[in-house]
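Need a sequence for this fold. Nothing fancy.
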């Protein structure tokens, strides 16, 4: 497991997660009253300490969009939600972020315990719907049926490269999730995008998958066409996911 430990140490995720914890504990951040988000001044301060900060500006065609809210910085917001879901931090009734009941235990854990437990916390306790609030309750339904996704993910352990279209399609067929919007989703393109964002993008934050981009598509944004589990970190993390219990129809 030496190579796995090296990937964790050399990677960005655990470093940035622990930076976030230290800052939040020291500063006792007061969240915005309406949306309960971290104010942008703190977001900028924390991001400046990250190894992998989110881009605060996104160019789409000829237009440049600047982030106005924390949730528009997907990786940063993911770390925030995970810090609370794991009990490393908590939010008081007055909207102040403070150390949580699990912070001391987390800091005493070794590399594998830290990353492994955070990965499982994401899978079980993280608010997928808060991270991806599109398609009505799409992410919530996907999380409710996540047990059926485990065998699909574990098949990828032995695969060199996985086609995203095929993977997301299989997840949708197996779970039966639907994208709910007025425009509908006759070809499941929105649902497939939702699976990619909620599962593959989240796993990429942990360093568990490498996302392979193709040619630039609509609005000159490169699309994810394939992915591969990182070896050995990604394969080890996916192996931690519990297999679903068999259904007894008798």
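Here you go.
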């Amino acid at each position: 497991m030496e190579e796995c430990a090296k990937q964790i140490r050399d990677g960005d995720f655990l470093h940035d997660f622990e930076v976030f914890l230290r800052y939040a504990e020291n500063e006792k951040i007061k969240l915005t009253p309406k949306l309960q988000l971290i104010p942008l001044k703190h977001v900028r301060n924390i991001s400046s300490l990250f190894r992998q900060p989110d881009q605060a500006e996104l160019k789409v065609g000829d237009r440049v969009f600047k982030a106005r809210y924390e949730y528009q910085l997907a990786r940063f917001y993911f770390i925030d939600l995970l810090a609370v879901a794991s009990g490393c931090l908590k939010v008081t009734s007055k909207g102040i972020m403070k150390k949580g009941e699990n912070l001391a235990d987390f800091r005493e854990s070794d590399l594998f315990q830290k990353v492994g437990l955070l990965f499982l916390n994401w899978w079980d306790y993280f608010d997928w719907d808060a991270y991806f609030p599109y398609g009505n309750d799409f992410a919530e339904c996907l999380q409710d049926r996540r047990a059926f996704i485990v065998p699909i993910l574990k098949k990828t352990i032995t695969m060199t490269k996985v086609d995203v279209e095929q993977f997301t399609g299989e997840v949708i067929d197996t779970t039966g999730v639907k994208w709910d919007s007025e425009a509908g989703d006759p070809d499941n393109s929105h649902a497939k995008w939702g699976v990619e964002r909620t599962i593959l993008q989240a796993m990429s934050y942990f360093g568990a998958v490498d996302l392979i981009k193709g040619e630039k598509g609509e609005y000159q944004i490169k699309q994810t066409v394939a992915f591969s589990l990182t070896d050995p970190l990604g394969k080890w993390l996916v192996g931690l996911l519990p297999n679903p219990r068999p259904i007894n129809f008798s």
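For context: The first strand starts at residue 57 and ends at 60.
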